[in-house]
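Model it.
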Amino acid sequence: VINNGDNEKYHRIGTDNRRLIELLVEHALGKGKRKLFYLSPSTRYADHEERLTWIRELSLRLGFALRVEVDVGEPEKAPDNFIAGYQLTQRLPASFGAEEAVLCGNPEIAMGCLRALGERGVRVPGGIALGVIDDYLFGEWMYPSLTCAAQPLRAMGVLAGQKILSILRGEIKKPLDLILDPILAVRSSL
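Modeled.
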């Protein structure tokens, strides 16, 4: 299982969610941002609940202002993170200060956020800085290109292939739980 697996009977390759949040928050603080808005996907998924816990903990520990908006959606439906990002952004103030940044819980939330900000005439990064958790390869091609705390997806895939071969050869008997360090892709949005 690559990510989102917390079961002792399966092999898992994942990323440290705490470190994902720390990388993005530390970067925002380093850029002079002292008030952060966090737009979270549905917390029905353990990763998003974990990330929300860590950003709240960091806010208390490091002393920056934090406002959280969480997609509650409709429990019986699969979440639509594009719409959620758009709607969550509409709850934010009409204008932003230089010390503020929006952090999005995934790239889809960020795309919805960008659309809502654009419709309001708020430029990124000129009117507000924007950072994202995860990077699905298109973050660098968006305009503006998205600053992301990302899972090392390529390394995870290569490692998964290597481990599958080792399992097939009988070299690995017990399930592995490998947690890789995330990376920070600094681009123009933050």
